[in-house]
Design a protein that fits this description.
The protein is of the alpha+beta class. It is built from 11 helices and 8 strands. A 4-stranded antiparallel beta sheet has the order 1-2-4-3, covered by helices on one side. A 4-stranded antiparallel beta sheet has the order 5-6-8-7. A hairpin with a 4-residue loop joins strand 1 and strand 2. Helix 7 packs antiparallel against helix 8, helix 9 packs across helix 11 and helix 10 packs across helix 11. The relative contact order is 0.09.
Length: 296
């Protein structure tokens, strides 16, 4: 299963306790499903968990069942309502009469309570939402073919403290998040804290991996610099040797020459500890500079 499928399966474990919340969740499903008109409701989903939840959701919200259910298994699940009486029950639940469009606007009066708005977001995500595997990238979106529904959803999300972005993909309108923090909060609020936690863990793992890579790259760069410096110092010592100048050096510089030649892989700090007695890195660096000047 995909990360998005797992998140929807977790959402479908949310109990259907209040009738008002069931109606709000069903409202989100209806406004974001494949078809919601005065003569038909048609919901198509690939999620087995959502397909199992839908009959119970509509029973709790409207006390009605679907007129037909098809698909299942590896094919898509298709739920339809065409019975005029059942459609009138759905219209009445949202305060519409038979002449008004149900699909192109959100009736905010139905979503006055915070818990109902949360249920509405959950229904919209179950019907037309997706979230990308956080191991790849951060992206959560809700898709609708209705411009006004998309704009009104954004207004609801802003009122709830979320800050989504909007885009158009072909003939569909997208409301989406790309910031991991917003996706975590949204999933947690609508009832998928485990999915949110998995996203957090993936982000921590990414940050840790990035930190380790930066540290390794930094250490490698420092090592390269140390090796280059050591080679330059040894070349200077060889020039001094070719000129017969090593035997005339002071004892401290002779000790530095011997240590540098014997341990070309060590840093100045490590060489300083090998001196007898040990000296500071600054002191050894001063001796090295003296040798480099003599070699010039």
């Amino acid at each position: 299963m995909s990360f998005s499928s797992d998140a929807k399966a977790e959402l479908c474990r949310e109990p259907l306790s209040r009738k008002c919340c069931a109606q709000a969740e069903a409202y989100g499903v209806l406004l974001f499903c494949n078809s919601f008109t005065a003569w038909e409701v048609r919901i198509v989903t690939e999620s087995g968990s959502f397909a199992a939840r839908l009959p119970a959701l509509f029973q709790k919200a409207f006390r009605i069942g679907f007129d037909s259910v098809s698909g299942g298994g590896e094919s898509k699940h298709v739920f339809t309502v065409t019975d005029p009486w059942k459609l009138s029950v759905i219209r009445d639940a949202y305060g519409y009469d038979g002449t008004e469009s149900l699909a192109h606007h959100i009736n905010f009066a139905v979503l006055e309570e915070e818990h109902c708005r949360t249920a509405f977001f959950r229904g919209a995500f179950l019907a037309a939402g997706s979230v990308t595997d956080p191991q790849k990238r951060y992206h959560l979106e809700l898709v609708t073919s209705h411009y006004n529904v998309s704009r009104e959803l954004t207004a609801l999300l802003l009122e709830a403290g979320f800050f989504p972005k909007e885009a158009i993909r072909k003939s569909n309108y997208l409301t989406y998040f790309k910031q991991s923090e917003y996706i975590e909060d949204f999933l947690t609020v609508i009832g998928a804290p485990l999915a949110a936690m998995e996203l957090m863990n993936a982000k921590v793992e990414k940050n840790l991996r990035g930190s380790v890579n930066r540290r390794v790259n930094c250490d490698a760069a420092n090592l390269d610099k140390a090796v280059d410096a050591a080679l330059e110092q040894i070349e200077a010592i060889h020039r001094l040797e070719e000129r017969g100048m090593l035997q005339d050096l002071p004892d401290k510089l002779k000790e530095t020459v011997d240590l540098r030649v014997a341990h070309p892989e060590l840093t100045l700090s490590q060489l300083a500890e090998l001196c007898d007695p040990p000296v500071t890195k600054s002191c050894l660096n001063h001796r090295i500079r003296k040798l480099m000047e003599l070699a010039k």
